[in-house]
User: Fold Interphotoreceptor retinoid binding protein from Lepilemur ruficaudatus.
Amino acid sequence: ALTNLTQEELLAWLQRGLRYEVLEGNVGYLRVDDIPGEEVLSKLGQFLVAHVWRKLMGTSALVLDLRHCTGGQVSGIPYVISYLHPGNTVLHVDTIYDRPSNTTTEIWTLPQVPGERYGADKDVVVLTSGRTGGVAEDIAYILKQMRRAIVVGERTVGGALNLQKLRIGQSNFFFTVPVSRSLGPLGGGSQTWEGSGVLPYVGTPAEQALEKALSILTLRRALPGVVRCLQEALQDYYTLVDRVPALQNHLASMDFSTVVSEEDLVTKLNAGLQAVSEDPRLLVRAVRPKETLPGLEAEDPLRAAPEVPEDQA
Assistant:
């Protein structure tokens, strides 16, 4: 039992299942293979804040890797969610029913956390695999329902929060049975991830999930610049001048939280621009490298003019 370990032994256990680093592009990476409970976090919380969390706080985005996390302690859920919850207001994130004791426990975010919360304007990506189970699944599900994180990887195992090993009679056979379940208030009270698993927003093989996550974050870092360029282009060139202010305001207020690909971005921008302008000619498209628009020369696609036929007729 972890409660019987000394602080040094707890620290050694924790470090075996915890990896962190700052990746290229100032992206924080945190891999957790076992979610510690309240008892461990109360003893080592300040150490984690000082030596792990503070190094990740300065990053522009965070990848939480739960691909190898097959379980953990329910009491650790509010700690993980609270550091990513954007505000100081408490939020009811789950309700756990325990069958043996016939008790129901509500899980809320913490009103205060040691150290600082991760910035609300920073992207968070959660990586999952077909082995991600139990408490890790609940964390992925909660963050997905809160729209606080983009889940990338494989559908999770659809396990249970707590398993109990039972002996069959006086034999040498045992079986494990789920004894507690999530009632999932963020999913409407009746929806839960047990049995079905957590479906990622972006499906990809687990071994490719980190690479995919980094490409998504690269795109999302470019979003402010894309919006700014569109606003400037509308201001300088769009002929329906009276509609420009409304278009610029709409671009500034658009929610890009679900954009994970160039195709998503093009679809969202076109739907928004055309709805405001009522102009089907106002179009955005993604141009791949070395691809040119019809009638433009490849050497200078932005400045070249269409070729004029020499034959006057």
Q: What stands out?
A: The first strand starts at residue 18 and ends at 23. The radius of gyration is 25 Å. Residues 216-277 form one domain. The helical segments are 7-16, 38-57, 77-84, 135-145, 209-237, 244-253, 262-277.
